[in-house]
Amino acid sequence: MAVINAQVSELIRSLRKKGWTTSAIAKHLATTGIRASLRTIQRHCLCAVVEKKKGRKPRKLTSQVMEIIDSILRTDDELSERKVKELLQSRHNITIGLHSVRKAVRTLGWNFGKPR
Question: Does the predicted model carry a pTM greater than 0.85?
């Protein structure tokens, strides 16, 4: 095996950033006269990993949804969270999880549960 110099290492990284596979890079290097193992190429490719930005999904529990939940509870404060969720889906076409509805109700100050 040959020693990989900085120029070849940079070539490996640039090929990896272009989307080349490890075996394709090894074949390309072999045609230029450089013999490198797959593990060596993988080691040099670790520095060239392109980080993908993870796009966050927009929050479903916006201030508008909070206002809608608050207005639903003002009309009938005896509604359960499950019923509030169903009303959001049927009347306002908002799909939201039950846990999010419970969190919103708690944040708005409405108290569900048994009186103590």
Answer: no
